[in-house]
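quick one, 169 residues, struct below
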Amino acid sequence: MILDVETVETSTSVVEIAKTMAKEEIGSVVVTQNEDAVGIICERDMLDKVIAVDARPDELTAEDIMEEPLTTVEPGENLLDAIRLMVQNNIGHLPVVENGSLAGILTVQDVLKATPEILETLPAREERKGATKELSGEGVCEICGEVRSSLVEYNGKWICRECQDFLTG
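---
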């Protein structure tokens, strides 16, 4: 978990946010309003909500592009539950909130550092690009436990596309 979380106010310009993220070499900032965490902006948000739609970043603020409501965990949260939450919500940055205050942020990189054995279970990139079996009809993902209309076989398990995307980055 990263303890020193970069935050911006809802009124901060997207240009300033991009400069901060580049300068600090970070992939996200937590958006605050009156010191309360209210949203998050990741690199993907910059691409999807600014660049891909030809928006004018100098005319946008954090409030315009932030992801909300903010999905969070508490410091004592079980790591597997945090991973499931990240997979289910397709997020790579998970703010940690303690007693209403931002205490840190958990990233996919943190998870992989804490549990390097996960990397050993992943096939090589070349194998991941290969053919996969798909199961049509309802089934339960063996990672997140959600019922999905289609699953793919991945490393001997039946998983949903969201979990597959999360694992293969």
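Residues 14-24 form the longest helix (11 residues).
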